[in-house]
C-alpha cells in the first residue's frame, strides 16, 4: 500500500503530473564544471519542475544548498563485473541520505551485484536501516516492479530498461509494459516514468498512460548527447549514441 506517513506523502503528492529533471554530470563529460548541477537544478526550478534527481553525495549536497526542490538521490558506483551501479550498497544509500536527499533511488533488478547478491535484496535492508527515507526502485521490467512493491518500495520506475542484459538491445521506452505497470500498481505505489523520454509529447503520453510524474534527464541536461543523436542520425547511424548514454564513468 502507498505510504500513510504525512511527510513522505506530502513530498510524493507534490510530484503529481509534474516533471522531475535529472541533473547529473560526470567529470569526463564536456559540460562538466564544479557548479554545473546547481545551474541545471536552478534552471529546472525556473521552468516549473517539481523535483530533481541527482547523483553522488557531493552533487546532492550542492543542489540541496542552492535549490529547494525535493531531491531523488542516488550514487552511481561502477564495477567491471556487474551492470548494477545505482546506489548498490547500504553504505552508498546512507551517504545519499546524509547528503540531504529526500528520496533514495537504488537498483532493484534481479541482476547480481559486485558482492554477488541480487540487487533487489538491498531494498528491504534500506527500509529497515533508514526508515525515514522514501525509496525509489529503479527496475527494468514488470516482474521487478512487482517484487519491489512487495518489498516496500514507495516509487517504481522502469529506469533500467535498456541497461540490463535482457533489455540492452532496446531503442526506446516500452510504453505497453509501462501502461500495464500503471494499471496494476497505481494503488500500491507511485509509478513514475523514467528512461528514454526525449520530447514533451512523449512525457505527456506517459501521464496519459497513468504515470504519477515523469523524470527526464539526457534530453534536458546533457546537450552533448542531444547533439550526438543528431550527428549519429545524419551520419546514417555509423556510430550509436546510446553507447555513450550507457557508458561507465
From TrEMBL:
GO terms for biological process: N-acetylmannosamine catabolic process; N-acetylneuraminate catabolic process. Keywords: Carbohydrate metabolism, Isomerase. Pfam families: NanE. Transmembrane segments: none annotated. It catalyses: an N-acyl-D-glucosamine 6-phosphate = an N-acyl-D-mannosamine 6-phosphate. InterPro entries: Aldolase_TIM, NanE, RibuloseP-bd_barrel. The keyword Isomerase applies. One of its GO terms (cellular component) is cytosol. Its EC number is 5.1.3.9. It comes from the Bacteria. GO terms for molecular function: N-acylglucosamine-6-phosphate 2-epimerase activity. Pathway: Amino-sugar metabolism; N-acetylneuraminate degradation; D-fructose 6-phosphate from N-acetylneuraminate: step 3/5. Gene3D superfamilies: Aldolase class I. Converts N-acetylmannosamine-6-phosphate (ManNAc-6-P) to N-acetylglucosamine-6-phosphate (GlcNAc-6-P). This is N-acylglucosamine-6-phosphate 2-epimerase.
Amino acid at each position: 500500500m502507498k505510504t500513510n506517513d504525512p511527510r513522505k506523502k506530502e513530498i510524493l503528492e507534490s510530484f503529481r503530473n509534474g516533471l522531475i529533471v535529472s541533473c547529473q554530470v560526470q567529470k569526463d563529460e564536456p559540460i562538466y564544471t564544479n557548479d554545473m548541477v546547481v545551474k541545471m537544478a536552478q534552471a529546472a526550478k525556473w521552468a516549473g519542475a517539481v523535483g530533481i534527481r541527482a547523483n553522488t553525495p557531493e552533487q546532492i549536497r550542492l543542489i540541496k544548498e542552492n535549490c529547494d526542490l525535493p531531491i531523488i538521490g542516488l550514487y552511481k558506483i561502477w564495477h567491471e563485473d556487474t551492470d548494477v551501479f545505482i546506489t548498490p550498497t547500504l553504505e552508498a544509500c546512507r551517504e545519499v541520505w546524509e547528503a540531504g536527499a529526500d528520496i533514495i533511488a537504488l537498483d532493484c533488478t534481479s541482476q547480481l551485484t559486485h558482492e554477488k547478491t541480487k540487487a533487489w535484496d538491498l531494498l528491504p535492508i534500506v527500509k529497515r536501516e533508514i526508515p525515514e527515507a522514501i525509496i525509489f526502485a529503479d527496475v527494468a521490467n514488470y516482474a521487478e516492479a512487482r517484487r519491489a512493491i512487495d518489498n516496500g518500495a514507495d516509487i517504481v520506475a522502469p529506469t533500467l530498461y535498456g541497461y540490463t542484459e535482457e533489455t540492452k538491445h532496446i531503442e526506446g521506452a516500452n510504453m505497453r509494459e509501462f501502461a500495464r505497470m500503471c494499471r496494476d500498481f497505481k494503488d500500491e505505489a507511485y509509478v513514475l516514468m523514467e528512461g528514454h523520454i526525449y520530447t514533451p509529447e512523449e512525457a505527456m503520453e506517459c501521464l496519459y498512460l497513468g504515470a504519477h510524474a515523469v523524470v527526464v534527464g539526457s534530453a534536458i541536461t546533457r546537450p552533448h548527447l542531444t547533439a550526438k543523436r543528431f550527428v549519429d542520425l545524419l551520419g546514417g547511424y555509423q556510430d550509436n549514441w546510446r553507447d555513450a548514454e550507457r557508458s561507465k564513468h
